Amino acid sequence: FKEKAQLPNIRKEAIEKYDLSIAEIVKIKNGETLIDSEGNEVERSELVIEPPKPRSFAYCSDTKFYRKIVEHVKGVSLLYHEATFTDELKKLARQSMHSTARQAATIAHEAGVEKLIIGHFSSRYRNVSFFEKEAKEVFPNTVAVNDGSVFKIER
Predict the structure, then answer these.
(1) What is the rounded CA–CA span in Å between residue 88 and residue 146?
(2) Which percentage of the chain shows pLDDT scores above 90?
(3) Which of 7, 10, 39, 76 is 20–30 Å from 88 (CA)?
(4) Are 89 and 123 in contact (CB under 8 A)?
(5) For the chain, where are the alpha helices, taking DSSP H only?
(6) How far is CA 130 from CA 13, 53, 101, 122, in A?
(7) Are 106 and 68 in contact (CB under 8 A)?
(8) What is the pTM of this model?
(9) How does DSSP classify residue 4?
(10) 18 and 36 in contact (C-beta within 8 Å)?
(11) Backbone phi, psi, residue 27, to 5°
């Protein structure tokens, strides 16, 4: 899921200073440069307030380690990736079509995501803190979650 990119806001003082028409404002919002009355290019930062980066979320559950997923989740703000097992049961993870915490972190690292949340832990584990520890060795910005956990994607 990805938010649509927003257009920048024109600075009110720039409208007054350069006596911008509506057509010029639209062009500037769409990335065109403004040339002042003396033939100089006006710095974009003087004209606009850039919008926040669009937020994005990807969800990968019930999946074995699959490197090709990296291209699909590249650069997302928040990635949820299942981590049913720890790396000691990597073979079982592959056989049962699941991932380990380390494998989920590898996907996050290679995709350059901002934050990773892991879950879908096997019931054989009583304590899930070592899932988070294992994943953080590869991707430090990892949080192990439980059912019902809520996350806000900050701007």
Answers:
(1) 21
(2) 84
(3) 76
(4) no
(5) 12-18, 22-29, 44-47, 69-73, 90-95, 101-111, 129-136
(6) 54, 33, 9, 13
(7) no
(8) 0.79
(9) P
(10) yes
(11) -60, -45
Q: How far is CA 69 from the centre of its chain?
A: 14
Question: Is the Cα dihedral 142, 143, 149, 154 positive or negative?
Answer: negative
CA gap 142, 130 in Å, rounded:
12
Other CB atoms within 10 Å distance of the CB of residue 140 = 11
pLDDT tens-digit map of 47-100: 999 999 899 999 998 899 999 999 999 999 999 999 999 999 999 999 999 999
Report the chain's terminal Cα–Cα distance, integer Å: 15
C-beta separation of 136 from 98 below 8 A:
no
Longest dimension (CA), the chain: 73
- Residues in a beta bridge with 60: 81
| Interatomic CA distance for residues 137 and 3, integer angstroms | 30
